[in-house]
């Protein structure tokens, strides 16, 4: 057995033995805590940044899907309205109010309308900076593709109140028209810019409409403002200095969360900016890095997550492609500075290292008890930091007795509270966005219900108008047929009896000649053979019988038509005056259209609320027919003496107004024709007085109308006119 000598060991003082390991342990522990805290903090920040950018990208994608689906849904709704007959694209007045209503419902629409293949069309505009919604009409036939557009201010009901502008516009050269026709289906035709003091950019949704034969009928165009997307991006709180922006594949900005707009206005012209030219330095730097790192933006097909340094600060970047089925292909870019999350962690790390140095000095004096006293709170800090790194943000530590460690614990708790508040703020923002989305869906559903009710009402009104037009046109046709056919048919039918008798007498005479002169001269015999007298004798009777049957049939048809015609109705009954006027306008509709030597005549109805009036319906319709026909004649005569520029500057208009005052109903029919002097006006109601050329007027129309109003209905008929100021006829009928 070997005995060791104690002198062979190096003697170490107990204090040193206690202090040195303790100091070494404290140094290692504090250093390890600082290192793990920094690494765990960085890992937590990376996860947090990834979650923040992911949620932000998802929110932006959801908003784009919802916001940019609306224009195409509206275009599809309008296409369905045409197919079901609710919307008539050639009725520009009603179509204008129809699209005005849609622009009122969707305030983010800068423009909503259509262009026919003739260059005609109508639309409603809600331009930024404008105080009211406008209606734009271009119903005149386009000359070489160029239409004259007239912009009107509207009242609260969508009625035109004031002409504010006219300008030339060639729809056939516009991208939204050309691209839609080329594609043959609903598409996005790109982003358009609008010039002016305010200026804006909008995405154009185009929808080609085809007839059943496959022929192009029109193209719908809906411009949706992109400024609303920027407004939405500004509402998303990514981080203190974070940024969100959207770009096209060509690098041009669509929208951004910066206070800077994605376009500039130079000399009244709106110019879009590339992301690399953005006034926002972070957007500019991020775009240049993406272009340098990934190359052409067209090559980015999948989600990319990158980091780069900007002004000495690391930036987290997430690029997400966004597409829809109508052709939009954008990139959503989210950029978050690491410093927004790492500031407190760096501060805590510096504090940790400071405490480490301070602890070394204290450990050399305090000894083992001090080391244990210090180790325990440090272990609690380690456990709390690991819990926070694992996602338990509600953990905190309580350190007492050592001032430096209390400061470390307070800093650590402060960091934990900051992280928890950040997550809580993000969850609150997400909840608010979800609530806003729910509210938006409810508003869209409400608007959709209102629009469906409006469409149903329009459908019912259209059905009533179509039926009224059919009956009115049929009544006018019946009256014409009865008047034009009845007399000649009666004449033919009455003379058939005499012709039949004369024919029988001639045949009997010829038969007697054949009986008593069986051998006529050769010339007569040859003529009998040539005319086939036997066949003529048999067929002539059949022909006369067929003619008698035919004339009887015509007389029956004419009698049926006369009985059906309302113009021959002599019974007094309660009728709707507006219905009679509308029927008359339907009958005269072919005369209101544009002709080679005259322009289209616009009808403006200003109907008041009228009760049913007892009158002779057919005779009152005749009065309306005579007065409106004279107004049309006057406008056509004026257009023949004017140039095209004069016609466009002052279009032909007939204004029909009604009102009820006391026991009297007043109907006003006013035109903007050449008018008449007092000498002509004073003789208007005289029989056989006319200013029309020979063969175009009898001078009885107004005389008969005056008699119907004053004698049949005990009313009054006036005419007010001055040269150059048109003419106005006032009809006053008592309510019996």
UniProtKB/TrEMBL annotation:
Keywords: Cell membrane, Coiled coil, Kinase, Membrane, Phosphoprotein, Transferase, Transmembrane, Transmembrane helix, Two-component regulatory system. Its main location: membrane. Residues 416-450 form a coiled coil. Residues 372-424 form the HAMP domain. It is found in: Cell membrane. One of its GO terms (cellular component) is plasma membrane. GO terms for molecular function: phosphorelay sensor kinase activity. Its EC number is 2.7.13.3. Residues 480-736 form the Histidine kinase domain. The keyword Cell inner membrane does not apply. It is an enzyme of class 2 (transferase). PROSITE patterns: HAMP (PS50885), HIS_KIN (PS50109). It is a multi-pass membrane protein. InterPro entries: dCache_1 (IPR033479), HAMP_dom (IPR003660), HATPase_C_sf (IPR036890), HATPase_dom (IPR003594), His_kinase_dom (IPR005467), HisK_dim/P_dom (IPR003661), HisK_dim/P_sf (IPR036097), Sig_transdc_His_kin-like_C (IPR004358). The chain crosses the membrane at residues 12-38, 352-370. It catalyses: ATP + protein L-histidine = ADP + protein N-phospho-L-histidine. This is histidine kinase.
């Amino acid at each position: 057995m070997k005995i060791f000598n104690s002198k062979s060991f190096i003697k170490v003082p107990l204090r040193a033995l206690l202090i040195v390991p303790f100091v070494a342990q404290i140094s290692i522990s504090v250093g390890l805590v600082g290192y793990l805290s920094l690494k765990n903090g960085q890992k937590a920040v990376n996860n947090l940044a990834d979650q923040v950018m992911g949620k932000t990208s998802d929110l932006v994608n959801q908003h784009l899907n919802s916001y940019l689906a609306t224009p195409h849904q509206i275009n599809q709704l309008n296409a369905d309205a045409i197919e079901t007959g609710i919307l008539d694209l050639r009725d520009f007045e009603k179509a204008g109010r129809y699209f005005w209503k849609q622009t009122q419902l969707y305030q983010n629409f800068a423009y909503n309308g259509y262009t026919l293949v003739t260059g005609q069309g109508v639309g409603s505009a809600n331009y930024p900076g404008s105080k009211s919604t406008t209606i734009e009409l271009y119903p005149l036939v386009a000359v070489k593709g160029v239409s004259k557009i007239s912009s009107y201010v509207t009242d609260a009901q969508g009625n035109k109140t004031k002409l504010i502008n006219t300008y030339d516009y060639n729809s056939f050269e516009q991208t939204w028209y050309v691209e839609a026709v080329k594609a043959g289906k609903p598409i996005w035709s790109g982003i358009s810019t609008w010039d002016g003091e305010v200026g804006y950019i909008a995405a154009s949704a185009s929808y080609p409409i085809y007839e059943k034969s496959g022929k192009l009928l029109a193209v719908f165009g809906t411009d949706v403002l992109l400024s609303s997307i920027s407004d939405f991006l500004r509402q998303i709180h990514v981080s203190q200095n974070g940024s969100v922006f959207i770009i096209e594949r060509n690098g041009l900005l669509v929208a951004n969360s910066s206070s800077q707009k994605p376009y500039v206005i130079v000399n009244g012209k709106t110019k879009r900016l590339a992301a690399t030219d953005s006034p926002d330095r972070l957007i500019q730097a991020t775009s240049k890095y993406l272009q340098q790192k990934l190359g052409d933006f067209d090559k980015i097909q999948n989600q990319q997550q990158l980091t780069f340094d900007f002004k000495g600060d690391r930036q987290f970047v997430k690029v997400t492609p966004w597409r829809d089925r109508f052709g939009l292909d954008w990139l959503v870019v989210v950029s978050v500075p690491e410093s927004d999350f790492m500031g407190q962690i760096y501060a805590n790390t510096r504090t940790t290292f400071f405490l480490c140095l301070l602890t070394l000095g204290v450990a050399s004096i305090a000894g083992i008890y001090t080391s244990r006293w210090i180790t325990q709170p440090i272990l609690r800090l380690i456990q709390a930091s690991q819990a926070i790194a694992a996602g338990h943000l509600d953990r905190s530590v309580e350190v007492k007795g050592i001032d430096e460690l209390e400061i470390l614990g307070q800093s650590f708790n402060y960091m934990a509270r900051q992280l928890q508040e950040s997550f809580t703020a993000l969850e609150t923002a997400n909840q608010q966005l979800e609530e806003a989305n729910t509210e938006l869906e409810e508003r869209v559903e409400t608007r959709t219900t209102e629009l469906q009710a409006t469409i149903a009402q329009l459908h019912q009104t259209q059905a009533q108008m179509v039926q009224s037009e059919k009956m009115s046109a049929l009544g006018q046709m019946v009256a014409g047929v009865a008047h034009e056919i009845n007399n000649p048919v009666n004449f033919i039918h009455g003379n058939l009896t005499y012709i039949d008798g004369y024919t029988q007498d001639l045949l009997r005479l010829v038969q007697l000649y054949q009986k008593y002169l069986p051998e006529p001269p050769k010339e007569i015999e040859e003529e009998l053979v040539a005319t086939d007298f036997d066949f003529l004798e048999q067929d002539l009777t059949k022909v006369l019988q067929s003619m008698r049957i035919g004339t009887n049939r015509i007389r029956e048809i004419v009698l049926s038509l006369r009985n059906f015609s309302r113009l021959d109705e002599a019974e007094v009954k309660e009728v709707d005056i507006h219905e009679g006027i509308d029927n008359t306008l339907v009958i005269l509709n072919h005369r209101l259209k544009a002709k080679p030597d005259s322009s289209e005549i616009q009808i403006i109805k200003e109907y008041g609320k009228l009760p049913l009036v007892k009158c002779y319906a057919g005779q009152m319709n005749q009065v309306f027919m005579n007065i409106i026909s004279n107004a049309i004649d006057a406008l056509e005569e004026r257009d023949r003496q004017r140039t095209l520029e004069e016609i466009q500057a002052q279009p032909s208009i007939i204004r029909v107004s009604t009102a009820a005052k006391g026991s009297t109903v007043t109907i006003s029919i006013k035109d903007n024709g050449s008018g008449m002097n007092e000498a002509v006006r004073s003789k208007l109601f005289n029989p056989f007085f006319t200013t029309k050329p020979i063969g175009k007027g009898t001078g009885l129309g107004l005389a008969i109308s005056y008699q119907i109003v004053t004698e049949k209905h005990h009313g009054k008929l006036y005419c007010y006119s001055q040269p150059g100021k048109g003419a106005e006829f006032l009809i006053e009928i008592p309510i019996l």
